[in-house]
Design brief:
Elements: E1 2-6, H1 14-23, E2 28-31, H2 39-46, E3 50-52, E4 66-71, E5 74-79, H3 91-99, E6 104-106, E7 114-118, E8 121-125, E9 140-146, E10 152-158
Parallel strand pairs: 1-2, 2-3, 5-6, 6-8
Antiparallel strand pairs: 1-9, 4-5, 7-8, 9-10
């Protein structure tokens, strides 16, 4: 099982197209919000199932604010993160994930990649493909791969 995890594309599809092409094949694409009208484009371009949530800039989107999905036999809370004030830290989001008894929490919004483990909970942010804010300002995304032994491996990648 291979999942491509992206966020904060903001309607700009050039880098999205590069990542979709370079990472094929994958089984699932997870978009963590701020698609800004590119929902249908992503669905068509991905060529596989897509899970997505609404971000703070997705004003007219019908996407849910958050949802729990099953990924590689694990429960994952996916959200953009702005309702959890992730720009000020991820503690509230970690508490929410633990309270919902999920294995993974995935969020966007900050445009900065993050991968953290807290107890049995994995918290991640793939950063932004369009407007990266971390040092070096390289567009980023994550790939999650289930290993033969069932463990999950997370790779932070840059364009």
């Amino acid at each position: 099982m291979k999942a491509l995890i992206i966020s904060d594309t903001h309607g700009l599809c050039q880098n999205l197209d590069k990542v979709l092409e370079s990472e094929r094949p994958y089984d699932l694409v997870i978009h963590l919000g701020d698609l800004e009208g590119a929902e249908d484009y992503l669905e068509a371009a991905a060529g596989c199932p897509v899970e997505a949530v609404r971000g703070n800039n997705d004003y007219f989107s019908d996407l849910p604010d958050e949802k729990i999905i099953e990924v590689a036999g694990r429960q994952a809370l996916i959200t953009h993160g702005h309702y959890y004030y992730v720009a000020a830290g991820v503690e509230k989001l970690i508490k929410e994930g633990m309270g919902r008894n999920v294995d993974l929490v995935m969020f966007g919004h900050t445009h900065r990649p993050l991968l953290r483990k807290k107890g049995g909970l994995v918290v991640l942010n793939p950063g932004s493909l369009s407007y990266p804010r971390q040092e070096g300002h390289k567009p980023s995304y994550m790939v999650m791969e289930q290993q033969p032994d069932g463990e999950l491996k997370f790779l932070l990648k840059f364009l």
